[in-house]
Amino acid sequence: MSATARSVETGSQADGFGARLVWAVSDTFVLTRRNLVKYVRIPESLFFSSVQPVMFVLLFRYVFGGAIRTPGVSYVNYLIPGIFVQTMAFGAVNTAIGLAEDLQKGIIERFRALPMARSSVLAARTLADLLRNVGVAVLIAAVGFAVGFRIGTNVAAFLAGIGMILVFAYALSWGFAVIGLFAPNSETAQVMSFPVLFPLTFASSAFVPVASMPSWLQGFASHQPVSVAVDAARALMVGGPTTSAVWQSVAWSVGIVVVLAPVAVRRYRTST
Amino acid sequence: MTYAIEAHELAKRFKGGVVALDGVSFAVEEGSVFGLLGPNGAGKTTVVRILTTILGTDGGSATVLGHDVSREPDLVRSLFGLAGQYAAVDENLTGRENLVMVGRLNHLPRKVAERRAAELLEEFELVGAADRTLKTYSGGMRRRIDLAAALVTRPSVLFLDEPTTGLDPQSRAGLWAVIESLVGAGTTVLLTTQYLEEADRLASRVAVVDNGRVISQGTPDELKAALGATVLAVGLHDAATAERAERALAPLSEKSPHRSGTAVELPVDGGPRIAMEALRVLDQLGIEPVTFVLREPSLDDVFLALTGRSAEGAAGEGVSVAPGSSEVGAAPQARPGRSAGARR
Fold first, then answer.
1. CA distance A120 to A21
2. Which residue of B has its CA nearest to A43?
3. Which of A79, A228, A248, B324 is most buried, by CB atoms within 10 Å?
4. Residues of chain A positioned with their CB less than 8 A from the CB of B83
C-alpha cells in the first residue's frame, strides 16, 4: 500500500520535475537577456571594458614583448593565446560584480518572492557572462590578427582552442560567483576578486615562459589552472602536443565547477 | 470570517542575537487593508519578508490564503504581489521591459505578459515613459512601476512595504489613490508604514509594531481615540517656563502632556476650543509661547501614548541604528553581513 502511494507520488513528481525543468530553462533565458541588455544600455561600459584587453595586447606586443625571449616561437604568437585566457579570466570578475550588485540593489530579493526557479539567477548570470566572453573572443581575435598573430595549426584547432578557453572562463565564473555572493557590495566584489585573479593570470605562462621565473615560483606557475589553459590554447592555436594539455585544462574546468558551484548555490540559498 | 493572511507568534533572530520579531500575531480579513505601523527597525519589513517567503522564521507560523509560507513556499509565491520600500526594479531596463520580465518570471506566456504590461502602463499613466529606461524615472514613477510589477498577475493579496517612504506629497497622494482603487477591486493589502496619516487613510485595521512586538491593534479611529484627535504643541523660551506651562496645561486634557526641552505637547480632543483655553491659561500666568500649533497626531504621538517613549527612541532600543540617521535601515531589517546602508 505504501508502495502504491510512493509510486503515485513519484509519478506526479516526475511530471512536476519536467514542468519545473522547462520553467527553469525559460526563467534562465529571461534573466540572461536581462543581464545582457545592460551591455547594450550602458555602451560606455562595453566600450571601456573592451579597451582594456586591447591595451594589454598592445602593451605586451610592443612595449614588453621585445624584452621577452620565447624560444621556438615569435612573441606575438606566444602572447595571443595567453591574452585570450587572461582577458576571459578577467571577464569572469563580471560574475562577481553582477551578483553583488543585484544583491545590493534588492533585485535578487524581489526574484526570491516570484514563483520562478531558484537556480535561474546563478545560471543566467554565468550564462550571460559566457555569452559576453564570446564577444570578447571575437575582439581579441581581431586585434590579435591585426598585430601579427597567425594560426600555426588550422582554423578548426584555433576554434577548438577558443571553445576550451570559454569553458574554462565559464568555470571561473562559478568561482567568482562565490566571491560576489560573499561581498557586501559590487565595489568590494571587484576588489576581492583581484587578489585571486592577479597571481593566477600573471604568475602563469600567459605572458612569459615559466622557465624564466625563479624556481620556487615555477611549481605553482606551471601547474595552476590558468597556465594549464594557456598551454592548451597555445598548443591548439600555434602548435605542439595538444592531447594531454587540453584534457588537463578541461579537468581543471570541471573540477572548479564541481567544487565551487555547490558553494555558490548554498551561499545563494542562505544569503538574504 | 475569512482571513487572507494570518501570522501566528512569528519569531526571528538575526546573527549576533538581535531579536527582530518576538511573537508577532495578526490576521488580515479578505479584501481589507491592514496596516503595520511602526518606526524604522521595529520589525515591519521582517514580517513582510517572512510572509513573502524571502526569509524563514525561527518560530511561529504564517499562512497566505490558507497556505503555510514555510511548508508551501512555491505555491504561496504564486499568490501574492510584492512592492517594496526600495523599488527593486532593473534600472537598465525600460518600464515595459521590467513588467514583461516580471510577467515572464511569473510564467505568463510572452503574448500575455506583453498585453498585461501594456494595460498596466496605461493604468499607471506611464505610457509616455514606457520605453525609457528606469534611470530616467523620478522616484514617484519608480514606485509606480514597482507597484505595477507587483500587479502583473492580478494577485488577490498584495504586500506593500513602505510604499511611499521618501516620496514627495504629490507622488504620495497619487500612490494612495492607486492603492485605494485596488482595495475597491477586492484585493487584500498588507501595508507597512511609518506614517500614521497613511495608515489612517488606507487601512481598516492597524497593528502598531515596536521592537518586534505588536503593542496595539485596532481600527485607526480606535488608535487615534486612545491618543486624542489632535496634538497641541507649544514651544517656550526656556525649560523652566516649559515646566510651568506643562503643569498649567495638564488639566485641559484627559491625556497627560509630554515635555522635552522647551517644548510641551498635549493630546487634546477639543481642538480650537482647548487651544483658546490654553492661551488664556498661559496668558494668566504671564507665559508667552514662542510657537503654538494644533496638529494631526503622528506616529511619534502614538508611540508616546502607547509606550511613553518617542518612536525615534524606540528604534534605538535593542537594535542598532546608525547615529544621526533615521533613514538608514536598522539592524533587524538589514541583510546579515551586508551593510545596512547598502541594502537594496
1. 10
2. B92
3. A79
4. none
Distance CA B79, CA B216 (A): 28
Beta bridge pairs of residue B294: B232
B44 touches chain A (CB under 8 A): no
Collapse the DSSP code of B248 into the 3-class scheme (helix H, G, I; strand E, B; otherwise coil) and give the result: helix
Cβ pair A96, A193 in contact under 8 A: yes
pLDDT in tens, B248-292: 888 888 888 888 888 998 888 777 888 888 899 899 988 889 999
Q: Which residues pair with B188 in a beta bridge?
A: B157
Q: In this structure, are residues B71 and B62 in contact, taking their beta carbons and an 8 Å threshold?
A: no
pLDDT in tens, A232-249: 999 999 988 877 889 999
Q: Which helix H or strand E contains A46, and what residues bound it?
A: helix A43-58
Three-class SS state of A213: coil
Please check whether residue B92 touches A, CB under 8 A: yes
Measured between alpha carbons, how far is B223 from A253 in angstroms, rounded to an integer? 63
Within a 10 A sphere around the Cβ of A120, how many other Cβ atoms? Answer: 22
- Contact check, Cβ <8 Å, A107/B339: no
Is the CB of residue B251 less than 8 Å from the CB of residue B266? no
> Looking at the predicted complex, does its ipTM rise above 0.95?
no
> Which candidate, B155, B150, B153, places its Cα nearest to that of B175?
B150
Whether the pLDDT of residue B139 is over 90: the answer is no
8 Å CB contact between A264 and A179: no
pLDDT in tens, A109-125: 889 999 998 889 999 99
Give the mean pLDDT of B58-77. Answer: 94
Place of cell 486634557: B253
b or e along A13-50 (b: 16 or more beta carbons within 10 Å of the residue's beta carbon)? eeeeeeeeeebbebbbebbbebbbbbbebeeeeeeebb
